[in-house]
Amino acid sequence: MNLFLVTSPLQYICVLEAKHYFNCENNILLLVNQKSASGLKQQHNLINQNDWNHIISINRGNRSLSIPKAIKEIKKLIGSQDIERFFYAEYNGWRTKLLIRNLPINTEVYFDDGTLTLLEYPTYIIPKIPFNRPRFLQDLIIRFNGCQPIGLLPQSKKLEIFSIFKLDNAGFKVHKNSLEQLKNRYGNPKLYNENAPIGFIGQGAIGDKNQKTIDEYLQILDNIVSKFDKEIIYFPHRTEKEEVCNLLKQNKKIIYHDSEYPLEIELIDKKIQLSALIGNYSTVMFTCKLLYPDMPIYAFFSTHPNTNFQNTLQKQLKEIDVINYSD
Question: Which one of the record's GO molecular function terms can you name (predicted)?
Fold first, then answer.
């Protein structure tokens, strides 16, 4: 049996690709439900029950209770068997590590959770940093619920990578995710049109501490409208604040598009033509470049606290001909 841990719509797209690429049979999906209404809608539209032998759904809160409960359900399903492959993103995620500690897993396969891969891969995976995050009370609850706390957990000796990015193998077996299933399922239509509006990839956490203020964010969008003299189709992040949403909907030059799917699928499903795509540190830039190689893609190169991550990201974007944008 194979186990797939999914916590976001993008991860689900990657999981479908991995399931096909590795020719997996008898599969368990462990789904961590979205919190926002937008995220739940995308989750509902994406997931087909018939694609899975078993689906275990858990909520995001009370991890010390929900994950041990899920582990017990998984153990009942696998019986005396080992899990052939465990697929996960969020390499240093607490959920991930607790599952690894408590389940018999032959091979781990790490896949993309956005550009987080470009931070986790060089920071934790290549140097083989062990995981160690002791929590007295949390660990006590874990034991009480029949599971072993994570403790000091070394990197698996059978770790493989499945990614859309161009990663150095660094001693690991790296598999390329070319989104073949997505192309086969939805087709690969020509969505680039130089006379169409510009697409803008919405950012999460606007207005939060150490993030752009709402006023700064709105000014960026106004500058883009002025610079390109075109309408903008705005694709909101699934965690976008209601205040940001309401202000953007008042702007007559912005078409606010409430997506039913992650943007990779939404553009195909709704046949949305664009003259360019603009965003900041978004995996959509890489996936859309795979799907629509003719479409110009512009990236904001903001300062990131982790300079290694910023340099790696800029190098990756340069390799797929993404244009440096400055407003």
Answer: transferase activity
